[in-house]
């Protein structure tokens, strides 16, 4: 588990077995495929997405040949898990449970710092063994203000939002919400559990 001030990652070329992915959704899909088939989680070469940005990758990068990628960073990354009954979904960056336009109750689980153009996990680190969770319910005016401030991560603290950092959490929501996992709309549910597997896979930037 990474703690403040600890070194993180090492300079390394991507391994020949590393799978190149251009988005968070593609990354979690590749990991889920391996998990479902009983295989070890593959190493990933990140080319875009919010995890890529969190790790210093910036905007989506082109795909040079492997021989050109000699100055990359090799890092261990936590894996987030959302469960509902016997179903589970993996996420590398975030899982957002909400209704349309963020009306009603919502909960945001961040493994990365960024969720699109919003800094929803200003304290999040993708290898600290913790998920950064924010839950609440905001009226329309509060939502507008919070979204504006979330671009810089200054939406927290907020009296209408509860935050915590944890390894696991079970939740019951007031009615059904849609789970957006690594940016993809996946399932509608009213209860779920979150968990994290510390440093579950290797990523290259």
TrEMBL record:
Residues 102-200 form the YegS/DAGK C-terminal domain. It holds the Pfam family YegS_C. Residues 52-71 are annotated as: Disordered. InterPro entries: NAD/diacylglycerol_kinase_sf, YegS/DAGK_C. This is Unannotated protein. It comes from freshwater metagenome. The lineage of its organism: unclassified sequences, metagenomes, ecological metagenomes.
């Amino acid at each position: 588990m990474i703690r403040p001030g600890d070194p993180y990652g090492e300079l390394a070329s991507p391994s020949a077995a590393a799978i190149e992915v251009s988005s968070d959704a593609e990354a979690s899909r590749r990991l889920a495929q391996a998990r479902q088939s009983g295989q070890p989680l593959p190493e990933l070469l990140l080319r875009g997405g919010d995890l890529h940005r969190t790790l210093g990758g910036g905007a989506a990068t082109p795909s040079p040949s492997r021989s050109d990628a000699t100055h990359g960073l090799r890092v261990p990354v936590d894996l987030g898990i959302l469960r509902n009954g016997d179903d589970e979904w993996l996420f590398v960056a975030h899982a957002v449970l909400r209704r349309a336009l963020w009306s009603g109750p919502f909960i945001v689980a961040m493994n990365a710092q960024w969720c699109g153009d919003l800094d929803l996990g200003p304290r999040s680190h993708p290898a600290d063994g913790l998920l950064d969770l924010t839950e609440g319910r905001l009226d329309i005016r509060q939502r507008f203000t919070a979204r504006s401030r979330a671009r810089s991560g200054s939406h927290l603290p907020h009296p209408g939002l509860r935050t915590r950092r944890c390894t696991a959490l079970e939740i019951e929501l007031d009615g059904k919400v849609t789970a957006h996992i690594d940016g993809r709309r996946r399932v509608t549910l009213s209860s779920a559990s979150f968990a994290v597997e510390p440093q579950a896979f290797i990523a290259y930037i």
